[in-house]
């Protein structure tokens, strides 16, 4: 866990980054066909899903913008990893966000930047929540395959196309955000520029969910 404060303390308003190392039982980096989700449990009992971005083989990153959540207290990060060649597993991390210390007001103010950050964060979280839900529903349907009638071929084709489109959107976003030369404001600008495509994907995903009866 990386924080901007000495001693690893986290204050309300800080941005926290997590570097996640995923390895097999033998200690080898796990990276082939790996799916990782992160869910932050907030002090008020609600949860926010967040995508995990690929950093390098066996390593992933995720982040938390405490200034957008506005809650101090105990947080729990739940990480879930799944791969066809490995057993699914999960891990939890608990940390505390302290109330903001009194600081002198900055001479710079970026209200529009803050709004863009919030909009990008909420849109990305909304899309991710639907993707995660669709993923678990799909896994459950495969586990109960013997009890579910075979899907219409055209519907199955649309489901596969939708899954590939969602993966392509996040893959493109992941590649762009992985550029180490970018700062946080440039990454947020990239997310903001991708909002129209994210919204279109979200709408199509909701329509497909209604068709299959979810």
The percent range for helix content is 40-55%
How many β-strand stretches? 8
* Count of DSSP-assigned helices: 5
Proportion in β-strands: 25-35%
**Low-confidence runs:** 107-113, 143-150
Helix-strand makeup class: alpha+beta
Mean pLDDT: 74
Strand count, sense and barrel status of the largest sheet are: 5 strands, mixed
* Helix/strand order, N-terminal first: EEEEEEHEEHHHH
Protein described:
This protein is of the alpha+beta class and 214 residues long. It folds into two domains: 6-98, Sandwich (Immunoglobulin-like); 111-211, no CATH class. Helix content is 42%, strand content 26%. It has five helices and eight strands, in the order ββββββαββαααα. A five-stranded mixed β-sheet has the order 1-8-7-3-4. The chain has a three-stranded antiparallel β-sheet with strand order 2-6-5. β5 (53-56) and β6 form a beta hairpin. α3 packs antiparallel against α5 (195-211). The protein is globular, with a radius of gyration of 19 Å. It starts with 9 loop residues before the first strand and ends with a helix. Residues 107-113 and 143-150 have low confidence and may be disordered.
């Amino acid at each position: 866990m990386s924080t901007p404060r000495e001693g690893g303390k986290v204050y309300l308003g800080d941005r926290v980054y997590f570097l996640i190392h995923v390895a097999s039982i033998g200690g080898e980096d796990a990276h082939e066909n790996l799916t990782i989700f992160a869910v932050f449990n907030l002090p008020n009992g609600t949860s926010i899903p967040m995508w995990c971005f690929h950093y390098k083989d066996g390593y992933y990153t995720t982040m938390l913008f405490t200034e957008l959540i506005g809650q101090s207290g105990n947080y729990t990060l739940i990480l879930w990893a799944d791969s066809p060649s490995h057993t699914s597993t999960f891990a939890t991390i608990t940390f505390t966000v302290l109330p903001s210390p009194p600081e002198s007001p900055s001479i710079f103010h970026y209200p529009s930047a803050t709004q863009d950050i919030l909009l990008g964060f909420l849109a990305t979280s909304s899309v991710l929540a639907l993707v995660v839900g669709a993923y678990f529903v799909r896994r459950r349907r495969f586990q109960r395959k013997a009890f579910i009638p075979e899907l219409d071929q055209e519907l199955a084709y649309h489901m596969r196309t939708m899954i590939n489109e969602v993966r392509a959107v996040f893959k493109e976003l992941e590649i762009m955000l992985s550029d180490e030369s970018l700062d946080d404001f440039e990454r947020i600008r990239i997310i903001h520029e991708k909002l129209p495509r994210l919204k279109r994907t979200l709408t199509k995903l909701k329509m497909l969910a209604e068709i299959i009866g979810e």
